[in-house]
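Example record for the data management plan.
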Amino acid sequence: MLYFGLTNGLFLLRYALARQNGLRRQIYYIVLLALFLFSAFRFQVGCDWSGYYFQYLAAENIDWSVIKGTREPIWWAILGWIQNNGLPYPVANIVSSAVFFIGVHVLARRQPDPLGFLVLLFPILIINMPMSGIRQGAAIGLVCIAFASFIDRRPAHFVLWIILAAGFHSSALIFILLLPIATGRYTKTRLIMTALLSIPGAFLLASGDSAEIARIRYIDTNIEAFGAAFRVGILSLSALYFFLFVRKKWMRAFPQDYSLASIGAIGMALAILLVPVSSVIGDRVGYYLIPIQAMIFARLPFLSFRVNQSLHSALPYLGLLLVFLVWTQISGHFQQCYVPYNSWLFGLPGGHFLR
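Corresponding structural encoding:
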């Protein structure tokens, strides 16, 4: 299958370049461009292809004077601009993929292994977000830039990027709750302060229009996110691994972004609690945390393990490859949404045209 073969090829490429740091960084840019093209120029691929097409149609006569009062105003402004310029619907995928991959690149270039970070995102995050849930995919890209601002201890920039991300997908606002600890390495006092402030903050978010829509759509209905329990479960297991084997080593090796890694791991551990309430909400929150998971996994070769260094470094790749293989083989949902893969980059399949 194309997707499993591509994932396997990306992982083997990273393995082959394990001792060639300079070449690995050069190849990273080629892989980044290739994955952008693979995502942005797909045709009738992705579970939300039809849903976003109807949004594109709805934006044809959009009232620009009221767009600022809509949910996700940046997204609707983009759709309105595409319509006003007579551009076809697939252009929306190019824009959203560009935002996603630019944001991922901002965070990837902070890593000692950008290629490892990028390829670890492919089998779950890239396929599910910029190749399907494109609004949240763009939001995740901007949240990645916010994470970089968090590392740099620039709270104003952090808030700005979160607000811009919410202009694509309002779920990104949940990360505003990290503002009290966006000014530096957190202490127990700051963590407690964040927890206390998160109570009224979470209440305000939960009482907003977006939360009410989420409740109606996902909690008061039988809508489920296929595979959410497994995806969020993997995040929780990753968090457990971080705290058992990685945390202290990370603090010594990478103190500058220890706060982001540890806070992200806490979020990964707690995300599983959302799944019984709503698998969709748990899944949506979990996707934002996958870049932090990839950041942790990609740095394992740079940490000092007393024994089994190679095993620790290889385990994330082997685990993700196994999970992805099972998903692609047994999931009818995957087969329906992603197979066959088509692209309009070099021409459309017979009988199709852009619209």
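Summary line stored alongside the record: Residues 199-221 have pLDDT under 50 and may be disordered.
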